[in-house]
Design goal:
It is a single chain. By secondary structure, the chain is mainly alpha-helical. It has 2 domains: 3-57, no CATH class; 77-189. 59% of the residues lie in helices and 0% in strands.
Amino acid sequence: MTWRDYSSAYGASPSRPSRSGRPSTATTKRGFYNDKAAGLDRLTNTIFYEKSVRLFVFDFGNADDGRSIRNEVSTRMWPSLAVQLPVLLVGLAVYVTFALLMAFFRATYIDFWGVVLCVAMMSISGLFYIIGGQYVFSKIWNLVPISGYSTGGAFKFLVLPVAIGAFAGMVPAHAGTARSSSKKWERITSAPRAPKVSRKRR
């Protein structure tokens, strides 16, 4: 990143000489290191320290309407976390179970057709599973709400997204994982063992 790119991103411009030939004092701040300052100000009197360091402590400042971005994120992150955390846990259990199942039935019809099924379903976009799940389970069968979220009865709103997220993530994960684990296990079990060398006692 050049100084021009950095300055355009943070709304600052490099110090340019004035008409008298001396650098302007209004734009003496540097990007990362201010060699014009003394002591600790070389690090603190910089654009990076004033604009970017506070992001590491999750201080995102205020929005255009004055609302705190940190408070907005901390308030609105719970619905997304309520969906993604179960998807991670349920999906991890399903992925490991399916991969072990394919490795257990290696070199069989279950292994072959399991990989074929995963590759065929991997060719379908994940958006198809989302729309299809909403249409079948929500619109036709009326088992779960089609959309929305409520803190009082959040479970019924999370069943369909968690199920679709775990299922859609399982397909591409096992299209190659199941087959590679089977081949790896087959190489381990079919590898010739080294003959035992008997040592003569003296």
